[in-house]
């Protein structure tokens, strides 16, 4: 690189400022005054066309930096020159009235030719500069101009789900385009195209984005592209590539016809299921054709392999055929016909309809229904472990609480300020200790031990909705009980029944059907294992040494036999319906395809029969009007299966029955259990919560089982550094921006990282922020401290950090992004420090799942959320507890400030431990809040204006963009709202 000497005294020259290298070219001021202005008619416009020789420079780009005589220098590096002819570039510039110019040339990256420091003195007309020699000529006369270099860039979005694409680029030696760059044109399915004129540059750097803040910049390295045709697909650049759209043959091949179409009537509804069709490029929809009745022929488009046809005529036969359709519009042949005859119209049809509002507005109260409040003692049941567990001695049957008890105390929950209730699974369970609901047996039936006359599940949904409260139903897709799943598969023989085990394996009782509630007259039991015993080895058994003693003893001292308990390797569960292995690695592929526990028979969710069974079952509860699903053990089902089958089926059913808005706000949040403190679950993306919030990034095998393996391998190879990111949770400076949910899978998640770090609120806050770019939208994360499974740091006890720490945790949860969720009783630190679950080895009364109803005895009436108009008895005492008053006011504040419900957040310009700013803007709503929890904070660069603290009512006027806030104290907080409503609620034990 040549160094520039100081300007000569007689004329201005360009000089480079030197500081840690040559930083930029500076223009020297002219030493003569500008010419006087002459009449416009007399002005002569001089031009010069400067030709510059390129062969000896080997620069990627060429710039002319100049100053007309008596005028100012151009801004470094000057103006780009353009191809003229072979080995020459040129630039024509206007000199005004000047008769000449000073000039220097550079490559745009700091390499200069400035005539040895003297600059070039040039005149007007055609000028050539070749290796320092100036001449008056046109070297390209009578030659064909050299074409400008061009780059044709194709970018693939097939795995991204973008609806548009931009290319942001920088030619070598040139400047970057303005963000977001220039729009690309749709070329063919999954591909976008842009042709770029590079001038004299031979290459460019590029990054791509969807125009809404989602970027692909090659992991921060940008993409290096050359001239000619380049393709960029899944971060792989192919130079000199063939046109990816030129060889795309038209799709003329139709899918195969659907098979195994079955139709089953239920009242005046028909449930239709079928096996999926295959297609070389993928099936997009199915056409279901119905004939029969007075309605003629009806054709319905369906996105899954289950269709529920409702509102039909009574006692009428209907015939159905199904065709598959691919993206090109090719239609398969019709399936074989299936028929069904409807029955009588139900006397009391379901009346439920989801509330259909944004779920982020609704704090969640989580109850184990069977342990919350007992409204009907007649449906209480203790089960086979009633005595052994110690529950009998305490008069505390495992099934004690019920829907009637919950309906009776809806005003308690509303009085706390919660507008959503998460209830444990409601389907009929079957196991030795199944009060919690996670051992589903009949997925199509509500467990009778939870219902009463006038207090059915439908009655609970309707009663909650009447009070403006939502019901989120816990659902299980991953497993059934070890007794199988009624209507799908129930094993008929299992285990060995001898004199020791006769108490457990009952003999068959003709005419008796297990429902969990009805007591068998012969045995006096409501639980019943009569279908599951044998004294002879069952036909087709594959379990080794069936019926032979293992050499071990049970807890009671009884002889244990091989194959005594349900097992995936016994051959008693068909492989097309149940997986055939035990889990070996919780962060391995087998965690999604093997049994977790003997009580959790792992369903083969990649087969149509299982998919249809589950889709049909949960359609029933959607029809009843539930507002969302909490998905148990979501991580143990491949993301491909969720994205292909279950999530679209949920959306389709809600939209079909309740409308598009209800479908958009039907809240699905999954338990993707990662019991570690790091961002990615031990480095495995497939086992991390945020992974499940995204659509797939590429196409996989049409077979769901093969697709699951392909996806697992692909994403593990991509690793944690190549996962999609999002700015949906973050403010842009102080501004709210429309979120981009185009790549959202349909499943939100429980915030496992905050949960695991809630031993300390500051840890939870720091870890939560660190993960938020990897969720599709972290403002939908469900956030809790502890639950029916674990406390923070995978503690097996209910949280016992103290009342002050609880208050601080709550203050953070109710103001930070996400949806605050409280496990029943935490508002009074119920059972703090007690082991959450010890199975039947100890009484439930000593655990974190103890019965809560004693604290709710008496009457309570809520006039509004967080407002109790009257209370008497034990519940009145409960409502006076410090954390109750704390959560009531937190709910008041959150409900009054939209930014705390649906806002994005930022910590930019914010000092302090747990401090942040949040904003939500929509239509006439513009809510901006500055929050600090426990500690002091300073907010810099915020909009000027009047801020009012929602806690104290303190009014502060900001004129310099800075608002300092003193520390409010542990558990307390400050929420300064721009043009805010003032103090919300009254001072309490912490918020004061």
Automatic annotation (TrEMBL):
This is Carbohydrate binding domain-containing protein. Keywords: Carbohydrate metabolism, Glycosidase, Hydrolase, Metal-binding, Polysaccharide degradation, Signal. PANTHER family: ALPHA-AMYLASE 1, ALPHA-AMYLASE FAMILY MEMBER. Residues 376-392 have a biased composition (Polar residues). It comes from Streptomyces litmocidini. Its cofactor is Ca(2+). Coiled coil: none annotated. It holds the Pfam family CBM_25. Residues 1-27 form the signal peptide. InterPro entries: CBM25 (IPR005085), FN3_dom (IPR003961), FN3_sf (IPR036116), GH (IPR017853), GH13_cat_dom (IPR006047), Ig-like_fold (IPR013783). Residues 254-345 form the Fibronectin type-III domain. Residues 337-360, 373-394 are annotated as: Disordered.
């Amino acid at each position: 690189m040549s160094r520039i000497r100081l300007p000569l005294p007689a004329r201005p020259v360009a000089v480079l400022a030197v500081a840690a290298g040559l930083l930029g070219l500076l223009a020297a001021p002219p030493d003569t005054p500008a010419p006087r202005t002459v009449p416009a008619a007399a002005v002569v416009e001089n031009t010069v066309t400067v030709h510059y020789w390129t062969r000896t420079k080997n620069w990627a780009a060429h710039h002319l930096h100049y100053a007309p005589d008596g005028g100012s220098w151009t801004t470094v590096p000057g103006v780009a020159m353009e191809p003229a002819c072979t080995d020459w570039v040129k630039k024509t510039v206007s000199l005004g009235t000047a008769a000449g110019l000073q000039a220097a040339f550079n490559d745009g990256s700091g390499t200069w030719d400035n005539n040895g420091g003297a600059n070039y003195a040039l005149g007007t007309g055609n000028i050539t500069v070749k290796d320092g020699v100036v001449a008056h000529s046109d070297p390209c006369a009578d030659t064909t101009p050299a074409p400008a270099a061009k780059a044709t860039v194709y970018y693939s979005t097939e795995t991204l789900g973008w609806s548009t694409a931009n290319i942001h680029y920088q030619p070598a030696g040139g400047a970057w385009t303005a963000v977001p760059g220039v729009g690309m044109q749709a070329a063919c399915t999954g591909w976008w195209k842009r042709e770029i004129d590079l001038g004299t540059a031979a290459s460019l750097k590029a990054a791509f984005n969807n125009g809404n803040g989602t970027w692909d910049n090659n992991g921060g390295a940008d993409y290096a592209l050359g001239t000619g045709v380049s393709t960029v697909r899944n971060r792989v650049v192919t130079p000199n590539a063939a046109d990816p759209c030129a060889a795309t043959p038209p799709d003329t091949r139709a899918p195969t016809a659907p098979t195994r179409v079955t139709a089953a009537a239920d009242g005046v509804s028909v449930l239709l299921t079928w096996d999926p069709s295959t297609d070389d490029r993928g099936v997009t929809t199915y056409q279901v054709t119905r004939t029969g009745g007075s309605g003629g022929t009806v054709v319905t488009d369906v996105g899954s392999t289950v269709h529920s046809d409702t509102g039909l005529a009574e006692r009428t036969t209907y015939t159905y055929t199904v065709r598959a359709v691919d993206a090109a519009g090719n239609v398969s042949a019709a399936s074989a016909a299936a028929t069904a005859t409807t029955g009588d119209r139900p006397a009391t049809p379901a009346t439920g309809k989801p509330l259909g509002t944004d779920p982020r507005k609704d704090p969640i109260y989580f109850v184990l229904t069977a342990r919350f409040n007992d409204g009907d003692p007649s449906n209480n049941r203790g089960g086979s472990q009633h005595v052994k567990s110690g529950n009998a001695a305490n008069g505390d049957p495992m099934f004690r609480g019920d829907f009637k008890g919950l309906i009776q105390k809806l005003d308690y929950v509303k009085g706390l300020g919660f507008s959503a209730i998460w209830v444990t699974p409601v389907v009929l369970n079957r196991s030795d200790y199944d009060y919690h609901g996670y051992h589903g047996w009949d997925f199509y039936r509500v467990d009778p031990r939870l219902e009463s006359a006038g207090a059915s599940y439908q009655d609970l949904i309707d009663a909650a909705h009447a009070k403006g409260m939502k019901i989120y139903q816990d659902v299980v897709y991953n497993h059934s009980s070890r007794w199988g799943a009624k209507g799908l598969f129930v094993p008929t023989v299992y285990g060995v029944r001898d004199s020791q085990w006769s108490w457990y394996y009952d003999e068959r009782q003709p005419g008796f059907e297990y429902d969990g509630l009805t007591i068998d007259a012969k045995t006096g039991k409501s639980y019943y294992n009569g279908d599951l015993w044998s004294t002879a080895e069952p036909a087709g058994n594959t379990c080794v040494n069936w019926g032979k003693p293992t050499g071990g003893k049970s807890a009671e001292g009884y002889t244990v036999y091989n194959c005594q308990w349900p097992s995936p390797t016994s051959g008693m569960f068909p492989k097309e319906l149940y997986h055939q292995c035990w889990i070996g690695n919780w962060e391995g592929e087998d965690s999604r395809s093997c049994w977790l526990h003997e009580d959790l028979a792992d369903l083969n969710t990649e087969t149509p029969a299982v998919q249809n069974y589950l889709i049909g079952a949960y359609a029933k509860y959607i029809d009843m009007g539930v507002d969302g699903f909490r998905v148990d053990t979501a991580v143990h089902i491949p993301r491909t299966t969720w994205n292909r089958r279950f999530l679209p089926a949920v959306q389709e059913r809600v939209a079909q029955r309740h409308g598009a808005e209800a479908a958009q706000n039907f809240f699905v949040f999954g338990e993707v259990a990662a019991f570690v403190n790091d961002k990615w679950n031990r480095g495995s993306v497939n086992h991390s919560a945020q992974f499940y919030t995204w659509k797939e990034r590429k196409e996989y095998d049409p077979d769901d089982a093969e697709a699951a393996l392909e996806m697992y391998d692909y994403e593990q190879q991509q690793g944690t550094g190549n996962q999609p990111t999002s700015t949906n949770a973050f403010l842009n400076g102080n501004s709210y921006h429309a979120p981009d949910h185009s790549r959202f899978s349909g499943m939100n998640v429980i915030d496992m990282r905050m949960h695991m770090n809630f031993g300390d609120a500051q840890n939870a806050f720091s870890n939560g922020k660190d993960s938020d770019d990897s969720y599709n939208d972290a403002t939908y994360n469900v956030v809790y401290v502890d639950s029916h499974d674990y406390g923070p740091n995978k503690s097996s006890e209910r949280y016992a950090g103290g009342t002050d720490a609880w208050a601080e945790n709550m203050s953070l949860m109710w103001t930070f992004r996400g949806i605050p969720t409280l496990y029943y009783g935490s508002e009074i630190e119920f059972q703090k420090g007690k082991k959450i679950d010890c199975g039947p080895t100890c009484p439930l009364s000593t655990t974190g799942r103890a019965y809560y109803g004693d604290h709710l005895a008496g009457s309570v009436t809520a006039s509004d959320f967080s407002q109790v108009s009257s209370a008497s008895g034990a519940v009145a005492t409960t409502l006076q507890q410090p954390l109750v008053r704390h959560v009531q006011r937190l709910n008041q504040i959150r409900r009054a400030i939209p930014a705390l419900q649906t806002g994005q957040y930022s910590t930019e310009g914010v000092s302090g431990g747990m401090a942040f700013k949040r904003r939500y803007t929509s239509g006439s709503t513009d809510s901006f809040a500055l929050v600090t929890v426990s500690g002091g904070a300073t907010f810099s660069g915020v909009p000027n204006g009047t801020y009012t603290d929602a806690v104290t009512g303190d009014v502060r006027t900001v004129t310099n963009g800075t608002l300092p806030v003193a520390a409010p104290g542990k558990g307390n907080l400050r929420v300064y709202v721009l043009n805010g409503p003032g103090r919300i609620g009254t001072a309490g034990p912490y918020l004061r």
